[in-house]
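Internal tracking record. Fields below are filled automatically when a chain is submitted to the structure queue. Please do not edit lines marked as system-generated. If the sequence contains nonstandard residues, flag them in the REMARKS field before resubmitting.
Queue: standard
Priority: normal
Entity type: single polypeptide chain
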Amino acid sequence: MKIHSFTRFILSLSLLSSSCITSADDIEEVIVTADFYQTPLLQVNGSVSVFNAEQIQQRSADHLEQLFNLAPNVNYASGASRGRYIQIRGIGERSQFIDPVNPSVGVLIDGIDFTGISTAASLLDVAQVEILRGPQGTLYGANALAGLVNITTNEASAERNGVAELNIADYGTHKLSVATGGALTDNLNYRIAAQNTASDGYIENTYLGRDNTNNIDESTLRVKLGWKVNDILTLDFTGLVADIDNGYDAFSLDNTRQTLSDQPGTDSQQTNAAAIKASWSLTDSIDLIASAGYADSELEYGYDEDWAYPGLCTDFSCTYGSTDGYSWYDNYIRNNKNNTIDIRAVSKNADSGAKWIAGFYLRDQQVDLNRIHSKTSDGVIDVFSSQYSTENLALYGQIDLPLTDRLKVIAGLRLENFQADYSDTEDFYATPEENLSGGKLGLEYQLDKSRMIYGLVSRGYKAGGFNANNEVPEDRREFKAETLWNYEAGIKGRFLEGKLQASVSVFYQDRKDIQAKQYFAIQDLSISSGTSFVDFIDNAASGSNTGMETELILKVNNELSLFTSLGLLRTKFDRFSYYDADGNETVKDGRDQAHAPHYQYALGADYQFKADWMLHIELEGKDEFYFSDSHDQKSEPYNLLNARLNYSLNDWDLALWVRNLTDEEYQVRGFEFPNDPRDGWATNSYTQLGEPRVVGVNAKYYF
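SYSTEM-GENERATED OUTPUT FOLLOWS
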């Protein structure tokens, strides 16, 4: 689908729908909780997408990755059982192996930091998901260069209620969940939720004769308590346990959903996490809000490196060599402990209309890695271990100052000190430390009570680092911090007497010292191809990201609602060099950045055609994009059709749903290198395919 054709289609649909509008209730107001203040969506100075519980249900979504395609200019990379690597406006990581990674997109779940480990981001009992696009330098600092994903679940409340849900679908998929809550005493409320999601996956391992080597097995338990201690102090507690035991066997030598691995991989995560938040009315004009989060995660990620079995060349004709010297398994076991403390003073009841906030933030993280690289063909086992600790200490503040009745200026600043301590079994040590800064300056002009325009300049940052692999050349061992200047303008509001909600923004982002992952080839005579690959991070000189984002909701009448989102994006590198699969350095100016499609869209409708029946249908798609900054292989553009038919009866919701109705093949990760002896170890592109057509039924009971 061409961009200009799709844009004309959206405009035509909006005009046609607006001419057919009849009496309808207004669109419900949405409150964004990720910002310093709980702010209505249409008054947030910046680009934000919000998905509530109803939208998540209509999407038939169980995991965070299944929402990304609804938000403009948000993409993800898999290379695992879940798409936990997120890109916003073309900026974000795509994988992690032995090196420490400084994330570009932050992920919070009920205030607990799950940045980089969002396999645990199930949508159990979720109230809403907020995706903030653009650098969040004041709000979140070093781990939000590109943006922030904030997930909030249903709070503990005095109202006694509950819901139980059963979901059954293709590929042996089933989900069972239950959530309930209410009052324990007059001032103490609770909420408890539990869920298990399981699936055989849609990969068939033809060598082992199994159809569950890429399975999903995820369990989540969450407990929340809300205690109103007295009139001035409230305490909120969250406890979370996630037990994830997924398989990972997603890549095929033939780029199909049939694999030949003799050692299927794993992608597991066991997390124990907790958070506490205290809200204290310090004075008549100041609130003190203190929060602390803790997450202890054991992660294991392993895969069959050759994607084949030792006797491949006995069963198939190999034009050169064999797999006899190349039967390897790579396994990464990480213990990730993360602690955060945030203390902020927030103004209230300001007669002048001015608001301010001042805060202190501490993040302490310890990651211990054990990598076991098993070369089973010759019995060699390489063991690598590392210890990596970081500390982020920040002071931040923001002031919202009205200049007139309609014009307001927002200024924010964050000063952050980053320290790290790294050591490994190859006698490499590093103790980087640097001072970083970010912030924003924005203007808001209120056109009327329901519409505003804004302009924004914001600065984000990401700490520098190093490459742990001792095969990386010494002059490329360290890399510098990356900075991002974001220039943005937009309009938000309600139109057509409150029946149309619209948000439109344009942006230009100036990136400096871009941290780009690259690969280079080395001679390795222990394997038949004679070549293996080493990944490393280096700084590209600069680059730019330019685009537009549009989100519309149109309530035609009380029976029909339409929604659409559109992201347009142009990215480029300036003076960027990378190594190709043959080890040759290539210099390219103006090349697109990885995982940055030129367009991305979603279009859908909800139609209540009878009192108890609703049809939800949506079309989503995106343009082609480079899989990596280190080669020129691209995905193919795609369009996916999803639908859900829902029937409500008293306390029951019953549904029949389908994702990817036309069973289109699309790619969610890709690499380029030689890996198949059947074609003489030629350099090829290998891709991980996304979800095929999946049909399911859902039953939900409210009690």
